[in-house]
Amino acid sequence: MCMRNYRGSDYNSGYPLCELTLQNFKHIVTPDLLMQLIRPDPAVNGRTPVVWDFRGINFNGNLGDFASAKDALEIVQYVNQYHVPVAINTNGSVRNTAWWQALAMPGVTVGFALDGLADTHHLYRQDTDWHRIIENAKAFIAAGGQAVWRFVPFDHNRHQESTCKQMAADLGFARFENIYDGRDTGPVFSRSGQYSHYLGKANADWSKHSYQELLTSHINWHRKIPDSVNDVDHIEYHCLHKKNREIYIAADGSVYPCCFLGFYPGQMNHPGNTELAQMVRENNALHYPLEQCLQWFDSIESAWSKASVAQGRPWQCVQTCGRARVNV
Question: In 3-state terms, what secondary structure has residue 87?
């Protein structure tokens, strides 16, 4: 199960601040469900199914940070009672050291986003304090917590990667992860919408453009992507959701197969979710049983067989997990 909790807003739709409270969480993630996460799979035809390395709950905010949720610590304590592994990815810049010490429970792994040293980290991680993150991570580690240094490489911090690796080892981080997904360039705007700086090599003078212009160009770019090389006749899907047997639950309680398909819960107004929006049915686990919220998932896999995105293939599935089949 992959469950992501956030406290944030959709910048273009007026989506309200929301978060799962402890009461909400217990309503969805019942003790019986938690027990299923640690129960071994029954043998099928005498053979034991493969169990993936992580079978637990992952808090990894799409639109915010788990640590900022009011009941974040209490939710982890509830899950921990059932010995279910918990993985948390966070910018680590909120709360005090006492809170992070309390989070250091057995089976809990925290990935701290530290993209360089103090002089470079803030260029991408706006409004976060590198020194405070380090102090919080040190407190978590000192209390027995397993911490991971998660590093996103950019042109401005690549030269610091080896130093960060050594620092992670010196501070007692369990491991260092290089998190590269290709999204390492782009203009940076302030909260007021003013251009600040550019990550990577700028292909335009963004100081002459507004944030709204950037958003509009991004949406137009997304709408052109269905013509990409992934949307071909001979396509196969390497679905991470199926492989890992996980679901995604947003902070408003809505349920999706994965975070890629549930990026804008509620409105589903991401330009790449046009096909998906027509499939979603009764998927809020605060209003319907979780089993009922999962029933529409089959329609996604059925849509994979469509001839193209234009004819109903889910754009997000094509772009994220679709590959042109070789040797056809």
Answer: strand
Amino acid found at 316: Q
The CATH number given to whatever domain includes residue 261 is 3.80.30.10
Cβ-contact 304, 321 below 8 angstroms: no
pTM of the full structure: 0.87
Secondary structure tally for the chain: helices H, strands E: 12, 11
Q: What are the Cα distances from residue 146, in Å, to 9, 212, 221? A: 30, 41, 40
Note every long-range contact of 133-138, with CB atoms under 8 Å and residues 24 or more positions apart, other chains counting.
Answer: 133/91, 133/92, 133/93, 134/171, 135/97, 136/92, 136/93, 136/95, 136/96, 136/97, 136/100, 136/112, 137/92, 137/100, 137/110, 137/112, 137/171, 137/173, 138/97, 138/171
Token digits of residue 258: 């994965």
With left for phi above 0 and alpha for psi between -120 and 50, is residue 186 left, alpha or beta?
left
Range of the domain at 45: 22-192+247-303
Phi, psi of 214 (to 5 degrees): -60, -45
User: For residue 206, which amino acid is it?
Assistant: W
Residue type, 266: G
Give me the phi and psi of 205, to 5 degrees please.
-90, 90
HSE at residue 226, side-chain half, CA atoms within 13 A, is 18
What is the tens place of the pLDDT at every residue in 59-112?
987 767 899 999 999 999 999 999 999 999 999 999 999 999 999 999 999 999
Distance between CA atoms of 131 and 84, rounded to whole angstroms?
31
> In this structure, what token pair is assigned to residue 13?
């739709």
Is residue 282 in a domain?
yes
> Could you report the per-residue pLDDT of 15-30, keeping only the tens digit for each?
455 788 999 999 999 9
Q: Using CA atoms, how far apart are residues 2 and 89, in angstroms rounded to an integer?
A: 12
With beta carbons less than 8 A apart as the criterion, state whether 36 and 294 touch. Answer: no
Return the SS3 of 213.
helix
Would residue 289 count as lying in a domain?
yes
Tally of structural domains, the chain: 1
